[in-house]
């Protein structure tokens, strides 16, 4: 008996020694792995992606047709801009039925096939959830505005006119910049932070929140994999609507963002919905401080997966003033603030900003491709979940319309109207729009050299960029040095390199005005990323003691070797090296 027990003890000791050694890799031991941290998210703007019925507007069947192309990119997740029923005042960000598909985009059957097609290919789907506001054509709002005692009245923010005009609220899209709109039916004002056709929902009403959770469950039960939560930092409001100091609109996020009970609502949403699914959740905007952002996403708070901050988008909006030091500071500060806790998104474009290569790179014919690849390298080598906007993989550029008649965006058109009424300088507005307008990144996707870049057989809802004959998928597919081939290569590198996802980030030579260099370190692995953000040939020196070994990727044929810690970088060169 005694002998048996000794054998048993020996066996247990051997087993525990073996178990301790094998199951966990270095990566698993050192980081909190999650699929949504490792994902490369590809954002599709459905209206401009691919039209299959010739009405000039992209549709779900178009995305289905292109699923093999999307799969070939190597991405893991698609974020789809809103596809729900909408009168399209703001291209689908004004929803009139949250459980239906926009007629121009197709049917629920198309949606089901699209989702199945994605899942068959191992691609996940993140949908836009637009619930700070609905459309004024949503049944809730029709009811709400019809009488003061309608059961839906409190689904929105109303201010009875007998109380006088409510305190001023600035509106992002309103022609008068006024977020209060008088409605004579009930002699009251309603609140709309965006356009008049986008009344803000009243999250302080528990019934509204239950409606939203039911909508979320509806889509999650269909099998979608997460939500990008539109304008979410604005949902909670102080319904006494106190006066804000003059000029508050210059700090609108501070005054509108992260309202009184936002975390209570998020916890409630987590308990009632999110905790039951394994999903990616990302709120558009992250408040105005790091603390705000952490409060949204730190894992122990059980609210959202990751923060999507706008500081990177808020710089370089004047093409004459591109200060790389500012760019480096923004991304370094955010990385440091999230080095130990929380998780970030990394992106350089989306449907609300200019094309990445026009803004952060150089879209002249000489440097378009190389600078676009350099920016791709940045997105795919930084810490945080990579978000990549459709069309950037082929280096699409700003269209820069000269005439207001070519613009389609409600924000641009309403700003123009307002300025016209005030007798402002319309030429200078159009000059500014040419660079920053949201329409720049909404022009049709460039598939090939046929009419309308192969996007539609009809008349496109917005003009196609005339450079489509040279910038398109068909041409780039056949070219191993194209932006497209490079994007695929870099996605593959990221997927094979946990160090690029999780590794510690350290900036090198922070005061260098042309080169952005950083290292990424995870356990024994250490990589060096060197990005020449300028059109000059630049000498770059590594700090003493740092030794770059083999080059593992470059946006040129070769980037060359470091000799005694020094290298000469070509314009817009982007190289990744292994560090000793
Ligand atoms: C978000 C969307 C933008 C939209 C606005 C109002 O910022 O990204 O496209 O216009 O919200 O919904």
* Proportion of beta-strand residues: 15-25%
Mean pLDDT: 95
Fourth CATH level, the homologous superfamily of the largest domain: Glycosidases
Bound molecules: alpha-D-glucopyranose
Return the CATH topology of the largest domain: TIM Barrel
Number of strands: 20
Considering DSSP H and I runs of 4 or more, what fraction of the residues is helical?
25-40%
- What's the shape? globular
**Rg from alpha-carbon coordinates:** 25 Å
For the termini, the CA-CA separation is 56 Å
Trace the largest sheet across and list its strands.
11-10-9-5-2-1-13-12
The count of domains is 4
Counting copies of identical and different chains, the oligomeric state is: single chain
Discrete helix count: 20
Largest beta-sheet characterization: 8 strands, parallel
CATH class of the largest domain: Alpha Beta
Structural class: alpha/beta
Structural write-up:
The protein is of the alpha/beta class and 580 residues long. It folds into four domains: 28-132 and 206-400 and 440-491, Glycosidases (TIM Barrel, Alpha-Beta Barrel), CATH 3.20.20; 139-191, Alpha-Beta Complex (Oligo-1,6-glucosidase, domain 2), CATH 3.90.400; 401-436, no CATH class; 503-579, Immunoglobulin-like (Sandwich), CATH 2.60.40. It is built from 20 helices and 20 strands. The strands form five sheets. The protein has an eight-stranded parallel sheet. Strand 7 and strand 8 (188-191) form a beta hairpin. The termini are far apart. Residues 90, 93, 130, 194, 230-231, 284, 351-352 line the site of alpha-D-glucopyranose (GLC).
